[in-house]
Amino acid sequence: MPTRTFHVIFNANAGTALATGITETALAEMFASNGLTATIDADADRPMQERIEEALAGPADTIVAAGGDGTITALCGPILGTGKSLAILPLGTVNALAKDLRIPLDTPAAVAALAEGVEQQIDVGEVNGRFFLHKVVIGTIPGLAAGREYIRTMPGVSPKLGFMRYVFRRLQRTRRIAIAIDADDKGKPRVERVQAVAVASNSYDEGFGRILARERLDGGTLTLYVLKRLTFVDFFRLASGMLLGRWHQDQALDVQSVGAVTITSHKGLLKVMFDGEVETLTTPLHFTIHPKALTVLALPPLPDTQAPADEAMRA
Prior knowledge:
10 helices, kinase activity, Diacylglycerol kinase family protein, Rossmann fold, six-stranded antiparallel β-sheet, Diacylglycerol_kinase_cat_dom, Tumour Suppressor Smad4
């Protein structure tokens, strides 16, 4: 079997990279110490698109996203159909896809894991020509996420307490939005007044501590989560239900598996949380799924009797 080669696109501004002070030199030493051949691109002054094009044109068979979920999503579309695979060094704040793939969150361990990584084909979601790997959310949640990003790099406890006050104020003032949902283009779209809607690639699991975790990444479906309301009572009930592993049947939530869905609003633009990044998209939003379209490096499957080691981290 030929030796795998890596081209690493390093985002030094990602959450964990900033917190731990990981440098280009440190990354290069980690790869070398594990006997891995890698080119490290840490040039943040160049446009991301230019850096990605250089990686795809190079000889490496595996492109490594060394950053957060935003960096990973930026690489997804360009890699599709190239024959190259995607690997992840989780250096972000949430690292959702890395957790689903059981990639260690400790950077030296994640680099070492690349040596034993196995290729896995996973689904890719698409909305209005943009690819996503986890979920797209509209409604209340993107506003909360924007507040999280504002305090992310601020030191100390005070900004975190300020963020909690911000969350409670937003919950007090939040308003439902009117949207039309046309799932699988069947019949007349249903009109809903909702607090938030999430469209996820595959579905989130239930189970103790498995908060927004996915065991299956290649089921070939989208899952529609419609949050009809979000009072303080709903917030705490839903949060505790997620922690305890019983939330799909929550009275404030509708869950539906679909092959495609279109979401229409009277607003021409909607703020969304796009794989963890807050963006603005033009409506209507047309969602589809591309089954097993992306090749990623993941750890070998665990024996059926062995539980994932990072369940506590998920909670």
